[in-house]
Amino acid sequence: MRASKEFRLNNNSYLIINSGSSSLKFSLFIGDNSEADLTGIAERLATEQAEISWKYQGQKSEVKLADADHAQVLKKLFAVLSELNLFDSLTAIGHRVVHGGEYFKESALITPNVLNKIEACSALAPLHNPAAITGIKAVTEQLPDIPQVAVFDTAFHQTMPAHAYLYGLPYELYQSQGIRKYGFHGTSHQYVANKAVEILGLDKADSGVITAHLGNGCSISAVQNGLSVDTSMGFTPLEGVMMGTRSGDIDPSIHQFLANKLKLSLTEITDLLNKRSGLLGISGSSNDMRTLSAQAANGDKQAELAIEVFAYRLAKSIASMLAGLSRFDALVFTGGIGENSFLVRGKVLNHLAVLGFELDEKLNNKGGDELGLVTTQASRKAIIVQTQEEWVIAQDTIRLTQPA
Ligand code: ADP
To answer: Which residue has the higher pLDDT, 141 or 31?
Structure first.
């Protein structure tokens, strides 16, 4: 199904790195294969339990690396690539960087100047950007000659107009503090929007789609003629639809109320909204849609309620995205929930029947027709598209590092 021969026909390989504060995920793409050839993760970094695991040619391996940090993990990874005879073909490295602020409207070849700007965005993403910077610096130190590329979660949404990205706050807070909507999951929204336009045979220059990326984090985007014109996540990934453990939109006055009534600190409230809310908060048992769906099927009312609230808030957010579009061709579902949960897709489309959606239950239950459509012939189109975030990062890495 995946496009594979669009770009390289050689055996160059490209390593994609996603650095978190205590983890580092990686994927290696070789030659013209668009499916990662080697994937892995290093977890619990800087603790005694730190370890790295990877999968290559169907075989899983795991090595304990007690107290290893990002740099030590990368050293081990490069050694593993050497042992597998994959190191010499390593041509470039791509990094997922969460926040590019207003500096980056697209991916960038990493230079000292680019790195400075990523550092300048750390205030906006204090948990994420420093981790990416650590990863970039560790590569630079160990492999100073290898070109590196940064691919930003926020870049795709930089085309949003001011009326979509500004909050109803004093304008001075935007000017002095950069408080505005940035949006996230841009790589995924861009990829699935383009793919849907291609699959449905639409004219990209005159197209309007709404993309719903539903994983552990969830966000919606309005994409007009291939450009993001609005999105549900905002200054941080906490805004917008309800998620696995995040509340999504709430009345901002709840902060004050919780502080007064329960004597919670701001940090505790932020923690509550990010880690103990959403599906987990309402169900009281799980943040995982697959688990909750099974519980609801067995009569667990609280799990059922969590799914109902999730689906309704999602439908409401999707409908709100219409304001950004001048035409509406299709709704696109992606991410673990969007691609797999017929229950959520069904509930969302039923809430949105007024927009002309008519669910084809059979198609929805089996994960779509050959194109991925889950709606009837007469309906406005809703389609499932598998997201490919790592592959998109690999493509940008290749594009920006290949000699002209
Ligand atoms: P991440 O955002 O971490 O990449 P994913 O995109 O993998 O996460 O999505 C994880 C979510 O997808 C979880 O809530 C999981 O339960 C859900 N999911 C995966 N498979 C199914 C399934 N078959 N049915 C319902 N939900 C599913």
So the answer is: 141
